[in-house]
Amino acid sequence: MASCIANSTLERTAILEAATALHMVGAGSGSPARLIALLCDESLGADELAGKLEAHPVLAARVLKVANSAYYGQSRRVGSVRQALLILGSNAVRGIAAAACIDQVMPRRAATLPDIVSLFRHSLATAIACEMLATSTHPPLGADAFIAGLVHNLGVVIQASVDPTGMGAMINARRTDPVMDIRALEAQHAQVRHEECAGVLFDAWQLPDALIAAAVHHHWPEAAPEPHRTLVSLVSTAATAALAGGFTYSLEPQAPALAGPEIQHIVSELPGRVEQLSQALR
To answer: For every one of its 282 residues, what pLDDT tens digit does the chain have, with 9 covering 90 and above?
Structure first.
C-alpha cells in the first residue's frame, strides 16, 4: 500500500525525518508507537494482550483508570487488566490503551499548530463517534472503529513539522474561509497532505491496511480500496460528527451539515463522553 502514501521518495524521507524528530518513530520496543501496532494485532489472544499490557505498568495503570471511570460506569471495581478484558472486552481495552498511547505520542505543543490539545480532543470525539456508528450499523468493524477514528488525523502533527510555512498559510486562510474543503486548502497552500503524512507514519508503524486506508482516504472514502471503504466511510462520518459536536480545531473550524436522527443522537452524546474519557486519560 506504500505506493499510494507519498508522491516521492524525497517526500517520504522528509515525513519520516519529521516523525523521528517528534519521537513518533525510531524508538524501542516499549515505545507508544510500537505498542499501538501491537494493539492493532487482532490475532493477539486475551492472555497475550494482558501480558503485553502488564509489562508496561504505566500503560496498565491508565487502562485501569479509564476502566474504572465514569466513561464505562462499572458498578464494581476493575482491579486488573485481565479483569478489564473479561468485563469490558478486548476491543474496549485495546481502545483505552491506544488512546493512552496516542496521548503520549502527541507533542504537547507545536509552534505552527497552536491548538494541538483541540486536535487531540477532535480525535477522541471521532473515535467515540466511529465506535458508536460501527456498533449500530456495522458490528464486524467494531474491532477497528475506535482506533481508526483515534489515529485518523495524526498526520496533521507531522504536516505542521514538515511544512510550517504551509501550515501557517492554511490556518490564516481558514480565518476568512472556514468551510473550504481541506483538500482544496492543502492544494493551495501545503507541500504535502496530512493524509499522506499519516499514511507514511502508519506504514512505518506497520499498522493494518484498514487503518492506513482510514488515514489516507478519510476525506475521500470513495478512493479507498474496496475492502476498507466501509470503515473509511465510518471514520469520515464520525469526523464530521465530531466537528458538529463542537470538537473543532484550527484546520477544521466548522462542520458541514449533518442529517439523520442517528447521527444527531451521536452528536448530542459526544460532549459528555469526550469529557469523561479526557478526564480519565489525564
So the answer is: 433 445 567 689 999 999 988 888 866 666 777 788 888 887 888 899 999 899 989 889 999 999 999 999 887 899 999 999 999 999 999 999 999 989 888 887 777 888 999 999 999 999 999 999 999 999 999 889 999 999 999 999 999 999 999 999 999 999 999 888 899 999 999 999 999 999 999 999 889 999 999 999 999 999 999 999 999 999 999 999 999 999 999 999 888 777 677 788 999 999 999 999 999 987
- Structural domain that includes position 163: 2-24+109-281
Is residue 102 domain-resident? Answer: no
Integer Cα distance of 77 and 162 in angstroms: 45
Q: % helix / strand / coil in the chain, to the nearest 5?
A: 70, 0, 30
Give the count of domains, the chain. 1
**Domain for residue 147, yes or no?**
yes
pTM of the model: 0.92
Q: Is residue 84 part of a domain?
A: no
Q: How many residues does the chain have?
A: 282
Compute the distance between CA of residue 202 and CA of residue 219 in angstroms, rounded to an integer: 17
Identify the CATH number of the domain in which residue 160 sits.
1.10.3210.10
